[in-house]
Amino acid sequence: MSESVFLAETDLAARGVPSRYPAWLDVLQSATGLFLALFMWGHMFFVASILLGKTAMWSITRLFEGYFFLGASYPRLVSGVAACVFLVFVAHALLAARKFPLSYRQYRVMRAHTRAMRHEDSTLWMWQIYTGFSLFFLASAHLYQMLVWPQNIGPYASSDRIWSDGLWPFYLLMLLAVELHGGIGLYRLCVKWGWPRLSRGLLKKLKWALTAFFLTLGILTLAAYMKIGYEHRLNYGERYHPDTLPQWLLPFAPSGEFSDPPALPPAAEGKEA
Amino acid sequence: MSRQVIFNILRYNPQLPNVTPHLQRYLLEAADGMTLFIALNEIREHQDATLQFDFVCRAGICGSCAMLINGRPRLACRTLVADLPDENTLAPLPFFELIGDLSVNTGKWMRGMSERLSVWLHAQEMEVDTRRIEERMDAETAEAVYELDRCVECGCCVAACGTARMRPDFVGAVGLGKIARFRADPRDMREDADFYELIGDDTGVFGCMSLLACHDVCPKTLPLQTQIAFLRRKMAAQTIKSAGKKTSLR
Amino acid sequence: MKTVITDVLVIGGGLAGLRAAIGVRNRGHEALVLSLVPPKRSHSSAAQGGMQASLANVIRGQGDCEDIHFEDTVRGSDWGADQIVARMFVNTAPKAVRELAAWGMPWSRITAGDREVIINGQKTTLTERQDAHGLIAQRDFGGTKKWRTCYASDGTGHAMLFTVSDQAIRRGIAVRERVEALSLIHEGGRCYGAVARDLVTGEIFSCLAKATVIATGGAGRLYRVTTNAVICEGMGHALALETGVAPLGNMEAVQFHPTGIFPAGILVTEGCRGDGGVLRDAEGRRFMPDYEPEKKELASRDVVSRRMEEHIRKGNGVASRFGEHLWLDITQLGRRHIEHNLREVKEICESFLGIDPAEKWIPVRPAQHYTMGGVRTKYTGESPWLEGLFAAGEAACWDLHGFNRLGGNSVAETVVAGMIVGEFIADFCDDPNNSIDAPLTLAKTCVRREEDSLRALLASHGQENAFRLCAEMQEIMTRCMGIFRHADGLQDGMHHLQRLLQRSRDIGISGKSWGSNSELVAAYRVRRMLKLALTIAHGAYQRTESRGAHFREDFPQRNDREWLKRTLAFWPEEEATLPTLSYESLDVTKMELPPGWRGYGAKNHIEHPETEARQFAVERIRSHAQTQGKDRFTLQEQLMPYLECLPANLRGKNERLDEPLENEE
Asked: Do residues B75 and B162 share a domain?
């Protein structure tokens, strides 16, 4: 075995060059967190497109599948994105786990501490631990789904999953966990690195405002999917296909899919039947 | 018009281990301008001579009397009874070695921290010719250094720190604040690489989880949040700058 | 029995003790510091305003030098000071400031150009010199001709203590915290160390050393209203007094600070007045110019305190439920100044009074502040009566302050004495004659005596309560030994104190714990405090004159003819209830500055028979030197040679902007 193994094993590694790992780990934890938080907000907006209508949501889904620039839908692209996010997510979880209470004793000390202190930022950290812990499972499950069945995204497909497959409690929980965790996390990133140079009071107000906004958006969105899912429960499994697209989007669609109106392709009737 | 105030005080003397830790209740008549310094001395002189606590300057200058007042670390001498509710709990600062009741050994920990982080000025020359006019320093720099030098080592920041509570080898805001103080001092010859050796790990600046209770409880209102963030940036930059170089940081 | 053996035992971990420890450590000797509290909590940290040293950097300090600092100090002392010591001190103070600067002390600095200040209630513009930019700044303080007080905002003592303490840590100097020295181990006129008690475990052990230093600060807690920390109980003074061999000097010289916050007695710095704050009465009128037209609020502390009390007696005090007080008004200094240069004052006002000093006046009344008296030593810091026993700082009477200390001279004295005495201790330890064969039998006897005494105390079923005795003593001291003293009050107070001392032999203790036991501590300390109180009372009663802070209403004149002498108090008999006093004359014929009017305060002293001749001689030497074009150093040398008294490394001249140092080695 190499020298470094024994140096590490005997705790003598620290006596020469100071390790750079802690710095890198801290920077990476922040970087992955920042990426995930920003991704999550973007993702929220994409998902919320359902509030603008089924066609909007369908278009965005297709966009990510390459439909508008590759000439056909490739759901594997979504798998690819999901895989990347999954990797970042796992990295973030690993890095952040360093900060978790590592034993029941530590957890108890911390809980007693935050209760006695009644100090908002310390209490928020506990929430970050709770939500972070739940995201180990919730986010993993969701990402796995997206990884394996990327084709199951769409106005009807998603709604069916949420309503008919009974996953809406899962999504509700995940929504709460993600928004709280991300919001608190971003706030903490700002105070941790001292940028942007706003007062903590202002940062915290911003944080709560953003969390409130995204939670509202998220709940409305979830409600919209639930409603669609409920209305569509009898046609479970059917996929959505819009009759037409907005004028400006048509040139991007693969040729033949959407002919100029009013001509209706015969296949479309069958689909919607 | 006198007001009766209840103090539930955590009693435990490690010298008498057969008596288990418990809250003991004391009733006291509040008086005008009464601080916890006056209140606790009154309890000790008239009700219970065995009660242990620490005061020195009783003017908020020396940092001896930090304790948990209703769960939060504060300087007892600067706490007016008039500002407290009718029932209160007093407990010793956690984290530090308990001497007895409200008295903890902050001095020992602080000295250990000072030695570990070598928080004294590392000047270029050890012996100066004191007959000569002193080195110059501009007034703003001097004031900025003094600002960070105001720490009284009371231990409030460490007792309030979730990180320190979970990981007792953490140097705490007091340690990081002192490093920031010497880093800001143009007379100190150390560079970021040197400071990195002292605080560039999870017991130092990268262990801090930014819960910021330190900043919020500091009785001297030191700018701990911005100083720790500043150190974190500098230490991270130090790592990134020297990435790829295989040589020692020295 | 546990025995610790070291080279130098330092009792007290404040500025003086730590600096002395560093001094001997630098010379290769081992030092052990015993401290009641962690050193950084020492009362040194409470010094706010600053430290006097004639750097002459600011424009208002231009022309300042050792000579003026010396004169201010001697005048301030009302000619009670040892002028050799004062000379040693003023020459070392600038070096101390510069050494501290090199050690990291964040002194406030000068910015060149115009700045607005308040002088005598008026806005004035000062223009700082270009070549002073970045040098250490000075502010105005009471009783000084020049702006001489170097400072770090108003946390000077704190910053100094942390700087020096960090240097002690750097040198690995061992400190035993929460340890109290109970008595000195001595035999045949030689001190061998001390018996100490661990305040946490109660363990009693002996510390043997070649040299023992008492650096325990003052004894303010003898009084009810004091600015002093609760640890300033004079236990170092008592250590020497209880040997029966080593005397205390000038214990009746007790300083009252004009601006203690009313009624708590917490200090607000003299810097408030130095920076332009004024005192006002019930009608909001500024009254000090009526009494002291020249120095006004910035006369020496004894004078200002006395004038304030006088003004209250005339019915001009502000009535409150705790009694009467006056106002300190710093509102005209402006918020910016207060938030930058008087931060501690602001915090104290907010926390203890709930007021903003930039908006409202601060209620103040004089409070006990400083113990000029102390363990009498030679200029080397060593007790002439007990070889190997040294003292430094407030606990010592070597005697820099005489009957009144100037503001800013106390923290200065701590480090300066630490530097000077530290060198002398190192010399003492270097001398092979002074090495000791650890006197273990003696140590054992001393430890056993303390153990037996504490056991007896714990076992006793006495009727008296230590806390109550202490409170009674403090009340008597504040009432009878305060700013105005009178034979009737002093006698009455002395009788009460004697009775208290007798009662203190019958203290009972409810908690029987051998370890941490505040009642036990109060019990053995109050006996010692009572002895000190009686030393003050007896000295004050006997001294039938008024000098500096010691003011006798029945003898309002300073009487150089009878009283140009230092009180020495011995306590040879344990069972006695009064100290034995003797006196040590000051030699007018050797004084560089013969007695005269101070420049403030009363102008009615009784001359010493030799004063006139000495004055004449001084004038002659002066004019002679002037006609011959001799520089001030030569003149000084002719008036009162002292340089030989300083340790060799501290004899050099001090460089100033206007006084460059020639390249001499």
From this structure: no
Residue C165 above 70 pLDDT? Answer: yes
Q: What are phi and psi of C75, to 5 degrees?
A: -60, -45
User: What residues pair up with C570 in beta bridges, in sequence order?
Assistant: C580
Sheet architecture: strand order including C138-139: C51-52, C149-150, C138-139
Specify whether the CB–CB gap between C228 and C55 falls below 8 A: no
| CA distances, A205 to each of A175, A210, A211, B60, C271 (Å) | 20, 9, 10, 33, 42
Within 174-203 of A, beta carbons closer than 8 Å to B belong to: 188, 191-195, 200
Give yes or no: residues B26 and B126 share one domain. Answer: no
- Contact: B213, A18; criterion CB under 8 Å: no
- The confidence band for A1, taking pLDDT boundaries of 50, 70 and 90, is low
Backbone angles phi, psi at B189, to 5 degrees: -85, -5
Please state which CATH number belongs to domain A21-237.
1.20.1300.10
pLDDT given for residue A260 in this prediction: 53
What digits encode the pLDDT tens for the residues C405-432?
999 999 999 999 999 999 999 999 999 9
Residue C182 main-chain phi, psi, to 5 deg: -95, -35
- The last residue of one of the domains, among B57, B76, B103, is B103
DSSP state of A11: T
- End-of-domain residue from the set B78, B103, B128: B103
3-state secondary structure C247-291: CEECCCCEEEEEEEECCCCCECCCHHHHCCCEEECCCCCECHHHH
pLDDT band at A263 (very low <50, low <70, confident <90, very high): very low
User: At C454, which amino acid appears?
Assistant: L
Interface list for chain B against chain A, based on CB atoms closer than 8 Å: 68, 71-72, 94, 160, 162, 165-166, 196-197, 200-202, 204, 206-213, 216, 225-226, 229-230, 232-233, 235-236, 238-240, 242-243, 248-249
Residue B155 in domain: yes
CATH number at residue B199: 1.10.1060.10
Residue B109 lies in a domain: no
- Is the domain of B142 the same as that of B56? no
Query: What are the tens digits of pLDDT across the range A177-187?
Result: 999 999 999 99
Q: How far apart are CA B175 and CA A36, in angstroms?
A: 32
Q: Cβ contacts (< 8 Å) between B197 and chain A: which residues? A: 18
Structural domain total, chain B:
2
Whether residue A52 has pLDDT greater than 60: yes
- pLDDT mean over A76-91: 95
Tell whether B54 and B135 lie within a shared domain.
no
Alpha helices in chain B, H assignment, sequence order? 36-46, 106-117, 139-149, 156-159, 162-166, 172-183, 192-199, 213-217, 224-241
Are the beta carbons of C607 and C560 closer than 8 angstroms? yes
Complex ipTM value: 0.96
Cis peptide before A262 (omega within 30 of 0): yes
| Residues of C labelled catalytic | 257, 273
Tally of CB atoms within 10 A around C233: 26
CATH code, domain carrying B56: 3.10.20.30
Instruction: Assess whether B135 and B196 both reside in one domain.
Output: yes
Structural domain includes residue B112: no
Q: What local confidence, expressed as pLDDT, does residue A21 receive?
A: 85
Identify whether residues B91 and B152 lie together within a single domain.
Answer: no
Q: Cα dist. C383→C13, C388, C392, C491, C584 in Å?
A: 20, 8, 11, 30, 14
How many C-beta atoms lie closer than 10 Å to residue B112's C-beta? 11
In a domain, B113, yes or no: no
Sorting pLDDT into bands at 50, 70 and 90, what band is B241? confident
Whether residues B233 and B128 share a domain: the answer is yes
For the cut 70, the answer to whether the pLDDT of residue C228 exceeds it is yes
B123 and B241 fall within a common domain: yes
Distance of alpha carbon C134 from alpha carbon C113, whole angstroms: 12
pLDDT, average across residues A251-259: 77
Which domain covers residue B98, as residue numbers?
Answer: 3-103
